[in-house]
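Colleagues,

For the teaching module next term, I've prepared a clean inverse folding example: a structure given as tokens, and then the sequence designed for it. I'd like students to try predicting residues themselves before seeing the answer, so please don't circulate the second half yet.
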């Protein structure tokens, strides 16, 4: 496993930012912003996609306890349909940064694009969740908080398998859409079926 870096620019208060749910067919896109102590270390910390669900849940509580500041925010499926998923991802990150109890001096963004946040410099880092601790921590919080929300929605609509697929475009999820139609939580601006057909509401 590559060693994650503590910071991008020494001496600055940096918040790592990442999102979860960008490629999903249903539910919100959720982002987290995390400011870690300079000496934060944990052997499990990595890109959340490379971790087991149990390890993510274990790290979530540790990050929330040890972080100097953290926040999680979402953009709803309705908002995604209005402003598109890329802008929604940026908006979710902005909402998370707004809620931080400490104002960061720089933002480390997972990815290659970002809409600048007022008065705070940012650095876009491709695959940043595998390079910087704060981004990796943000990826864990975004993923676990969104997964928790989708599991709650799954109780209302169990036939779509959201407890397991979390709204991602799995074969089972798309088969359920074809069989049962859409729910109020599906993103209507997304191609919901492999071969798009007229959907019933």
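(Answer key — instructors only)
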């Amino acid at each position: 496993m590559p060693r994650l870096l503590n910071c991008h620019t020494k001496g600055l208060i940096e918040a790592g930012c990442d999102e979860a749910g960008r490629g999903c067919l249903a539910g919100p896109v959720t982002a987290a912003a995390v400011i870690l102590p300079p000496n934060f270390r944990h052997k499990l910390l990595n890109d959340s996609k490379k971790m087991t669900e149990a390890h993510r849940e274990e790290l979530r509580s540790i990050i929330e306890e040890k972080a100097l500041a953290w926040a999680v925010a979402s953009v709803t499926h309705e908002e995604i349909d209005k402003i598109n998923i890329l802008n929604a991802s940026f908006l979710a990150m902005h909402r998370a940064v707004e809620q931080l109890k400490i104002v960061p001096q720089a933002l480390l963004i997972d990815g290659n694009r970002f809409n600048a946040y007022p008065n705070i410099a940012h650095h876009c880092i491709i695959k940043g969740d595998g390079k910087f601790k704060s981004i990796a921590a943000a990826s864990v919080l975004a993923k676990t908080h969104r997964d928790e929300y989708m599991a709650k929605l799954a109780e209302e609509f169990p036939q779509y398998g959201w407890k397991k697929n979390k709204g991602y475009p799995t074969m089972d999820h798309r088969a359920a859409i074809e069989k049962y139609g859409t729910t109020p939580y599906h993103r209507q601006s997304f191609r919901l079926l492999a071969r798009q057909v007229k959907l019933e509401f």
